[in-house]
Amino acid sequence: MRLSTGAEEETIHFGEILGRSLRAGDAVLLDGELGSGKTTLVRGMARGVGYRGRVSSPTFALAHVSRGKRLTLHHLDLYRIRESETGELGLDELLNDPRGAVVVEWPRAARWPKRRIEVRLTHVKNGRAIAVVDMRQRDRAQARAK
Ligand SMILES: Nc1ncnc2c1ncn2[C@@H]1O[C@H](COP(=O)(O)OP(=O)(O)OP(=O)(O)O)[C@@H](O)[C@H]1O
Ligand SMILES: [Mg+2]
């Protein structure tokens, strides 16, 4: 799926819809150049899991947690992490949170779960394009086929 957004509010709104679809164990990988709207999207996602507080960019803190009413959203930003260091971050613990989902800016090549959503944000004239590939459905279809 691909959509075009022309304002920050639209990115937030789409993020909220995406956030509402999340279940525990889901991982959302955000791919997109600097300033393409990744953190903005996460602000909407936090709303979608029922979190009412403020979401800031975790670039310096590496990780933030938004404990929503419905689900916890672990928000990572690996911009400052080297590929070789991703094994040391304790990602498995976050990914196995029975009450939480994970969203990652600059996901690098860590071992992310198959049950994931890949989102790619790009600058376009007057806004941002957002492309989404939901691999969770593929995962469910495979489970049914077994
Ligand atoms: N659909 C949109 N149209 C226009 N501007 C947008 C849109 N979505 C977000 N923005 C703006 O883009 C700017 C950068 O957004 P944001 O910080 O979310 O990017 P980022 O991808 O997280 O950047 P970084 O790579 O530095 O973490 C913000 O000023 C935000 O308001
Ligand atoms: Mg950001």
Helix content: 25-40%
Largest sheet: 7 strands, mixed
- In the predicted model, the low-confidence regions spanning at least 5 consecutive residues are none
- Number of DSSP E strands: 7
What does this structure look like?
The protein is 27% helix and 30% strand. The longest helix is centred in the N-terminal third of the chain and has 13 residues, at 8-20. Helix 1 (8-20) crosses helix 2. It has 146 residues and is α/β, with parallel strands linked by helices. Strands 1-7-6-2-5-4-3 form a 7-stranded mixed sheet. The protein contains 4 helices and 7 strands; from the N terminus they run βαβαββαβββα. It has a single domain, classed as P-loop containing nucleotide triphosphate hydrolases (Rossmann fold). Magnesium ion binds at residues 38-39, 57, 77, 105.
